[in-house]
Amino acid sequence: MTHLRDFFRIAPSNNDHHPAVRCAIGVGVPLLTLLAIGRTDLSIFAVIGAFTGVYGRGLVHRPRFSQQWRAGALLLLALAGGLVASHLGLTAGTIVGCTAVVAALGFLATRFGRLKPDGSLFYAFAFSAIAFMPTPAPSLLALVTAGASVLLSLVVGVAGRALPGHATPWTRSPGAPLSSEERRETYVQTGMHVAAVAISGAIAIRLGFGHSYWAMIAAAAALVGATAAHRVARGLHRIVGVFAGLVITGLLLGMHLRTWQMVLVVLVLQFLVELFVTRHYALAQTFVTPLALLMTEVALPTDPWALMTARGVETVIGASVGMALVIFMHGVHALGNEQA
Mind listing the pLDDT tens digit for each residue in 123-161? Predict the structure, then answer.
């Protein structure tokens, strides 16, 4: 009942407009640059690099920079792996298996590196979305584009130090290592990431909607949370938010926006996502969905209505698999405690 009440409550702001502005700049400048030079086909690589800006959002400059450069490096590694997979022409099933491995490694790196946000959603997306591209851009150009976005996010992340009264000490504060109990929990959750991503990806491939990475990242997203109840609630939030977002997407697509107009809408949506992502996950997903689908239309125009259908169905698949696995493992853990 508590989670039901929480669904209708938006947590108070904690200066969320600061990271929202940083992330909007981190996404907006690369997209507007690519639009100006007529290379919107590279926008997905710029956006993946811009994911760097979401890390360390509540930290002061030095710890934020530390988290962001490490996250940026991991994103570039995942993207490079996706490019290799695409150029090798791996089968869909092989890509799903590789994505499960990337999700596990990304989760381990995030947990042992104490990176925030937790989980492997961004790394799984960086690998799988590129791996499934039939005709990716030249690898060097793609990596340069993504790398430039990473560098911009790093600069934006520390730029506030130049403002009067906003400079913070440039001192390193290493986090405490994981305890033995935290390590055991980390390894269990790593196995859950492998299983959830692999199962949801296999189901999505079987259904043949063509965007199975949406199912896989939805499964990974449902595994994030302090408790089993929080994880299940997150999965439900994702489903509700995505379907609400599909309504907004349909309205936006019905307006027949030009490319430059879609880019401007994307900037506003990115700001709104970061404004609410820690305060109400479903509301944030309401903005993430049109953001993701408009970005797809900018980079690679296709049938938007088929795209919307795929997004909805595959989100349900992935979130359901993730939640089912969370409930199963919670039951196993509870049974083990009773027998002990």
Answer: 999 999 999 988 777 889 999 999 999 999 999 999 888
Q: Are 28 and 270 in contact (CB under 8 A)?
A: yes
- Print the domain residue range for 26: 15-160+180-339
The two tokens of residue 260 are: 């430059």
DSSP 279: T
Element holding 53 (H helix, E strand): none
Q: How many C-beta neighbours within 10 Å does residue 84 have?
A: 16
Nearest-angstrom CA–CA distance, 259 and 298: 6
Residue 166: inside a domain = no
Residue 8 falls within a domain, yes or no? no
Q: Is residue 114 part of a domain?
A: yes
What whole-number distance in Å separates Cα of residue 160 and Cα of residue 177?
Answer: 29
- pTM to 2 decimal places: 0.93
State how far the alpha carbon of 252 is from the alpha carbons of 80, 169, 274, 289, 310, in Å. 32, 44, 20, 12, 17
Where is average pLDDT lowest: 27-36, 112-121, 209-218, 300-309?
A: 300-309
Residue 98 tokens, joined: 């590789």
Q: What does the pLDDT read at residue 257? A: 87
